[in-house]
Amino acid sequence: MTAKKIHSQLETKKVKKKSNRSILLGAAFLMATSSVGPGFLTQTTVFTQQLAASFAFVIFVSLLLDVFAQLNIWRIIAVTELRGQEIANKVLPGLGIILAILIVLGGLAFNIGNVAGAGLGLNAMLGLSPIYGAIISAIFAILIFTIKEASKAMDKVVQVAGFIMILLMLYVAFKTSPPVGEAMINTVKPEKISMYAIITLVGGTVGGYITFAGGHRLLDAGIKGEKNLSYVTKSSITGIVVTGVMRVALFLAVLGVISQGLSIDPSNPPASVFQLAVGDIGYRLFGVIMWAAAITSIVGAAYTSVSFIRSFSPAIEKYHNWITILFIIISTATFAFIGKPVQMLILVGALNALILPLALGTLLVAANKKRIVGSYKHPLWLTITGGIVVVLMGYLGILTMVEQIPLFF
Fold it and tell me: Is residue 32 within 8 Å of residue 162, measured between CB atoms?
């Protein structure tokens, strides 16, 4: 073999390694930024007001459930080399269709909120009306899926947006000088425990389409099979760490403002926190964070929701990018012409909390069936911890349904 050929092969390997690293980071950030959307910004602010340092326990519980859910789901998707709905159909014919319907309906409903959040972000950042801001943001999201290498563009957007969110949140948290020691104690020994806060946060950050976002992205990129499990695990852990940093940074920023005795504006709690922490420029910073959180959630919800119906028809598979664009257009039109359908969001939020136990439970059954996974042996500790998440989330989901359905009617 000539020196020129050897050099060429080394260059090809280097490019492939760089490409894989970008895909792994993209999948991690897609999951992380999807779980830290506009709803999470508001929920964290409101619940920190109510629970103060004790909210650290809620974040800890949500991250713990996140770890066990993500490690199981990403690993099983990689091993079976199938999407969530395909695995479900192999466990029980028709179950995949039910799961896909729940994911798509939940994703569509929450994407209306994401679009609204993007509009509010540009309103705070540039002074645009929320409706115009939402439309501009939707156009930006749509452009991502019109690019030939849409998946690569998506990877870059969520990475850049994720890094911006982390840096700004850490900056505001530093400026507010929160009582970190008190928060650490309350992480394991909370003064107050709110089951409703746990239900809301877990349902909004681990439920629905979010746990499948990264796994489906890696599958579409060809990073699958037992031989790639180390990469899949690394990517899922990276996503969980990024999620944790974002959640903790925002919590500490809010806690710092509260600990100073400052009064948060109830009409826009998260914006008020940033304004109190850094002054008028803080309000602009909030706009940047809100927009980044919203645009990545729009992209993540649309991409993952459509990935749940791609296998049902060759036409859907062929035109999935255009269907993703249609998904975004419907979300935006609903917000622009009807407004945010609060009651529907509440009901679907309750249903969203039930999607994870159904999905994870189904995948755990699949992981222990030879006809689906072949000779692969799913780690016992993952099966046990995953089972605990299924039972706990099922219980919390039922509590949410009982609480919220009467409000819908």
Answer: yes
